[in-house]
Amino acid sequence: MSIDATATEIVLRDDAGMTAHFAMDGGLIAVKSDGSAWDLAPGCFGWSLRMGFDDREPQMLRPSAATCVSQPDTNHLHVEFDRLVHEDGREVEVTVELTWELVDGLLQGHIEHVELPEGLLPAALAFPDILLPYSGNAQWVVPRDIGVLIDNPLSDAVDAPEISAFRRERAHMQMTAWLSDGAGLHLDSRDLDGWMKSLLLRVGRQTAELSIEHLLPQPVTGQPEFPSYSVSVAPFAGGWYEAAQIYRPWAIKQEWASRGPDQRRDTYVAELACWLWLRGRISNVCPAAREVARRLNLPVAVDWYWWHKHPYDTSYPDYFPPREGAEAFSAAVADLQANNVSVQVYTNGMSWDLEEPRWEAEGSKCTTVLSDGEYWGHVYNTWMNRKLMHTCGAAEGWHKQALITAEGVASLGLDGLYMDQIAIVGGTTPCYSTEHGHIPGGGAYGVQGFREVFRKVRAAEPGLVLSSESVAEVYQDLLDCCITLQTSWEASVGVAGCKGTTLIPLFQAVYHGHAIVFGNYSHIDGITPWDYLWPEDARPAPSEEQDWHALCPDQFCLDMARTVACGCQPLATNLTMDHLNDPVFADDVAFFLDLSRFYHAHREWLLWGEMLHPGAVDCAQADVTCIQRSIFTRPSTIKPFTVQRAAVLHSAWRAPDGEAGLFLFNYTRDEQTVTISRPDGLAPEDGESTLTLPARSMRFVRLVEG
Ligand SMILES: [Zn+2]
């Protein structure tokens, strides 16, 4: 199909009515579908390169006019570039060929061929890289952890003369979306291998530049490899849920989603009523766990921290023997198991303490080397100022160490092994080591390495259930569950983060039933525990504590309700016998136990179901006073803050047998009346769309075709 020489634009069309409009120079002008049309900002070619490693000095290298644009048929466009332009106008001769095509309502692009001058090594490929007019009421859908919605991101910079403000976000799924006045623009990438990538938003000149960035290898000689997978751009009508539904059909067909409800029912994770995240001494952990299992008369799991030899966040990966001895610990585990409690232990899946005696000889060989030649590490434990060094997934020595840890954990009779950090940041940081057998810089070796670690551990210890932190999609087939803390949104992001950002269960809208997420970071008394192996002289004085429960009487129950409403398994952290027996906490404990029973009875929806459109539940707003606190926060620095939240949380799910249900959670201390309305034709079975929920209660409403 030839292009008319007098035409001013080239239009690709598909049978579904979507069109993509290109300029004669290959620039992307607009994408349109039923209900959503986006006119893009000038200069948008859909991709660019970044030469700089510092986001403040990105040194962009952008395409200008293509040398050849051809349209082989109605829904394909082939574009060739022979030069790129630096911001200062200098040009670089290159060869880049890419193809755009319309497929299933998506504009998909992929790089066919790249040749760069010898020595030109871009840090990243931004693809898709979309320039949008930044209008009011913008929202950014971000797949960080289970999902975040950001209102008017970087809006302070909209009128700046240059597009220089930036915000980078993790991408635990390969999708993002921009929403504005009911119209959405979805971006995704369709990488099967786990290339290092993140999301980047730049704002200025009334423009938002939104991209998925793929970090490129930095070979010592020769051409860098470029990603060959497709990326997508799709206009749509709706919000974050609709964006997830664009990504989901592809996502759940991939290897990492291959274990669905039918493949995940055979571990204790499937049978649980709740998790308890407990720490330290056997006398602190076991009575409380047994008591919760007894009161529920249902299976419970303990995520046991601070069981290992050394103080928390020090001396990893030297864990054994347990601090109270292997014999006592194994007996405690066996006793829990006999009382309907499964047990997993904390280990760190990608850290080696800089001060651990073997770091110098062995740990350094496993550690990620940054582009400046320094080893990558971070001080989490500010009480002891100990630096954990982060390993590279490709380092063979780390694979051996992971197997040593797994063997030790299995030999103690444990049910599960938690490998911290991998599913939040594993394989996302470029490594420049020359000792790990990979090309320096970006690529997929880190993720592939950590996948291999999980595979080896599963093969060596098939009886251990595996879990990790956060929800990176690319590991889900090799994990039995993941913990999220983000369900404790206010405690996670604080007063500043609560302004203009909202938690959304975006991950569950894509993967629920194909991945299991549990948890929150909620302490019933607002007090985080102290590891008794940390130096006592570093411990803040008890007088720094306040009556947090009295100041924040609803934060715990809000977190609990939100955990289950988001389709995650309920969890309480640091619940002790004192809490379980104290009348002050009795109502909160009762809500947690009620919620656990309710979750357990409705697992076909809340564990295995496919998320339906949340619909609307009209209800009162509640003032909820909260604190932000981690185990490394000084209590004297904590300032309670108050947020407004829906008094009744809700979500809707379709069980594998096809039954649909709406779930309502009233976490407040007052009766609440709600009115249900749905966009999908489903309606409450009994026809009643107005309901009253008693204080601190939850309700299942069966939905049928209205
Ligand atoms: Zn490496």
* CATH homologous superfamily identity of the largest domain: Glycosidases
CATH architecture of the largest domain: Alpha-Beta Barrel
Query: Based on CA inertia axes, which overall geometry fits?
Result: globular
**N/C terminus separation:** 48 Å
- The fraction of residues in strands falls at 25-35%
Mean pLDDT over all positions: 97
Number of distinct helices: 15
CATH class label of the largest domain? Alpha Beta
| Biggest sheet descriptor | 16 strands, antiparallel
Structure ligands: zinc ion
Proportion of helical residues: 10-25%
Note down, in words, how this protein is organized.
This protein is 20% helix and 34% strand. The relative contact order is 0.09. It has 706 residues and is of the alpha+beta class. The strands form 7 sheets. The protein has a 16-stranded antiparallel β-sheet that branches. Strands 30-28-27-26-22-21-20-31 form an 8-stranded parallel β-sheet. The longest helix is centred in the middle third of the chain and has 16 residues, at 396-411. The radius of gyration is 26 Å and the shape is globular. It has 2 domains: 9-251, Beta-galactosidase, Chain A, domain 5 (Distorted Sandwich), CATH 2.70.98; 270-605, TIM Barrel (Alpha-Beta Barrel). A hairpin with a 2-residue loop joins strand 17 and strand 18 (207-215). Zinc ion is lined by residues 368, 392, 394-395, 431, 433, 436, 438.
Please summarize what this structure is.
The chain has 2 domains: 9-251, Beta-galactosidase, Chain A, domain 5, CATH 2.70.98.10; 270-605, TIM Barrel (Alpha-Beta Barrel), CATH 3.20.20. It is 20% helix and 34% strand.
